Structures
1.
Amino acid sequence: MTTSEPIDIHAHYKKGDKQTSGTVGHLDAGQDQVLKEVWIKLLAHFENTKDTPIKVEKSLVKNSGLAKAGISTSDTEAVEKWYTDNTDEVKEIKNQLVCDKLYLDGNRDIIVPSTFKPLFGDSADTRTFSNAFWQATMRFHSPDSYVLKFVRASGWDTDKAFARIRSSIERRITQEIDRLMWEGDTTQHNGVTQNGMCLHVGNDRLGSPVFIVTVRQNSPKLRSEANAEKLAAYALEKAAQLSRKYGEEALIVYDFAGFKLENVDLGFTKLIVTTLQELYPLTFTATLLFVNSWLFSGFWRAIRGWLDPAIAQRTVVVKDV
């Protein structure tokens, strides 16, 4: 069976070259055969599920007050009444979304109307597996690149790779990732959006975009679990989309400077790790953990067991960036 070679992150950055083994145009005969076998399984699954669309059951978008009330942002009269009746609730920092802040500040025309329509003719409440798959591959220059991310992360095991792709696409559908991205920042938690916890700051020496997550800006007490889950999905999808222009990979740096006990959020951290592994395998060339806090050692012991081998070998703890 074809297997992946260990990745030496330090060597690649010192040389200034990206890893190409196991990518499109750089497959040996065994790797090429595995890729073909995964495609055979995928195409068969497309055919088998074409008449059984998957329901959007855990939408990350529909947790806003307006959405829960079944109110369209296009219905200005109903929107105005809802905000009048719920002003105190939306003013609370823990609950307030960007769209709430915009409305309360009088910037009502900026709020995105509820006219979202899925690509490829799917209904608002369901998506077919094949349509969701093709949409997920749109951030890559080749659909093969998308499939190979999962294949490589699965150790070139055909069945495991297919299972991971299937699970990933089904999660994208049930969580309505396509609509989440269409809505943009407006349905994100206002406080998190304003504090700049996650920023794109340029490119690294390999040309990949660099994202810095300032961990001390994370405050679990100031936002709900639902908004945390939505933030994780939105930020990672946005980073993945941006990476398309720069070779389909990115670098992420978690800055633990000033990290305090109040910033510890194991639930949110595990959510990010599982989302990365399930939806975005090998999207990041490396994950750097910039550490100068005594709290980190205990935090690291708790989370490192959650990392699968593909992410673990690309994770580096550093004290100077």
Note: The first strand starts at residue 54 and ends at 55.
2.
Amino acid sequence: MATPCSACHKLLQMGTKIVAVGRNYAAHAKEMGAAVPTEPVLFLKPTSSYLENGGTIEVPHSLESLHPEVELAVVIGRKARDVPEAVAMDYVGGYAVALDMTAREIQASAKAAGLPWTLSKGQDTFTPISSVLPTSMVPDPDNLELWLKVDGETRQKGSTKDTIFKIPFLISHISSMMTLLEGDVILTGTPPGVGPVKVGQKITAGITGLLDVHFNVEKRRRPESC
């Protein structure tokens, strides 16, 4: 396994936002009953949703399960605005594996009502993430195998070569609309195989040959009354 870079990991502490790309794998779009997009589907997640490796994912009080989605995370290394696609990779500071935890019931209700997805994607602990690997350890980010297991059973396994929109295009496209700052993260989409995980289960995920992460799933504790 590769050794994460401590200096790179500090980038996550500097970031201001997480820009997530929805339906960037055609097979995942189809399993969700959604059209394959002709341009990136973007949404934001707060950095307060980060959870370090080994932490506990919290299922909100009103829910019984969440859906984990394994993704390649691209960590921006310097300020990027209106970046040409041809030089976009110069703005990458590192890579990580992340989970986009999704409260599917909340998301479905929001979609049906034409409302934003924020509550289904942005709650505390909803972005578990690994340490950051330097770019030198990831020479071909378009050919990485991502995987996710629940209680040892494989749920997801896919390759970044199957993404619809590649990293240089995503950086160029996003930076044409909003400035990407040092430490910001782009979640590049999830392969097919998503499904529920319940309280008491354990999630492991990773990038084959590079790193892996593990998380417990528990019910969020109710705040003690005064």
Note: Residues 9 and 132 are 5 Å apart (CA to CA).
3.
Amino acid sequence: MSTFCGLTKEYPQVALDLFSGKDVLRARTYLLSHVHTDHMVGLHSDVFARHLKKHPEYKLYCSEVTREFLLTSNKYCHLRNSLVALPIQQACDVNILNDVNSEQQQLQVTLLPAGHYPGSAMFLLEGHAGNVLYTGDFRLKNGAAAKIEMLHAGDVVKPIRSLYIDTTFFDPKIMYIPDR
């Protein structure tokens, strides 16, 4: 069970892995890390569908595999026009409408391999408020993160202002983390 509230302090106009609630529906861009139900809350709701239909410029970004999983389900086929697949380990520019001045704000979004489930991705957000890494569910081998090139600028690790880690197993009652 994900305990992430769906929004980061740095980029509140971007919702991650949560698609319901008043604050989340104020977002202008949506990111889905993978297709597990605890990261898809509200994705199939009529409220979210009407929200996207009313604002066709708002998009839901995910990996190519995640997009295909969603489109094979009748439950999510209504998202087809809003779904945008981004490649893994390639920085992509995402423009977000600023409601205050109607200008586009640019955010660089990079999907990083999460190693959790087919199509699962972590999100590196780079923009005016600094670099933010959201992990979603991830399962990397020891030392694998150090080898992710997009987390580096040359030989130096990029500065990360905030790290949002999925907390599924961060509960004292959970005594066992399953193997692969």
Note: The first helix runs from residue 46 to 54.
4.
Amino acid sequence: MMISLDENPLNPNGISEDAFAGVASVVKLSLFKANIDMLPPKLFASMELKWSLNLGLNKLKELPVDLFSHRSHRLRILYLLRNELRYLPRGIFRNLPYLQHLYLFGNQLISLPEQMLLGTSMTQLYLFQNKITNIDEGRPFDTGRNDTRVKLLLLQDNPLTSISPGAITGLEENAEIVLYCDLLLIPWTEQRLNFTCVSNVYTPSIRLDGETAETFSLTGFYCDHTDEQHTSLCTACGVGTY
């Protein structure tokens, strides 16, 4: 089952806790640009999320710490892009062992919780266009697993001034990390990682699947469809053009 409430402004009281009562499971749930400013803690308590959840382009300032904790989920893709999130509660993703792609760009995040990805299957993490200044020793990118680790970490357009060596523990060997380096000293690590320093006019190009490309195309990216495994090449619109 797929449920889409995209661009359907919800009532002033927001989405109700029993909005999905009677729905046992959903493959794709999309609440994109639905004017949501808060989520009830038990919104997904009775429903299994099986593939993707899109909460992008809303007005969320915080997430309930137990949003995903009331039952097990098989969620692979989570879109939280372009909200107003300032922080993430520690353990928010702990009950999402299959989660691989997390889109958090375009928020107001100023820091990351300790062990943010512990127990997930994260491979791609999109954190650009936030307000993160420091990433401390709390191993926020470590999944705690040997079979799956973060391979792509996009941190550009954050005013980073320091990254502790312990902060990048647990990344995949040769992982790609993109970030601004103007005020930043790249930490030394025994692990082989690929750091790419970019400027504030950098326009990333990212190859994405069809579902994700469709979301990106509505949030400041131009996506050109290719025949390569049904993907699209999405390029950020230049500054002042979106």
Note: The longest helix spans residues 210-216.
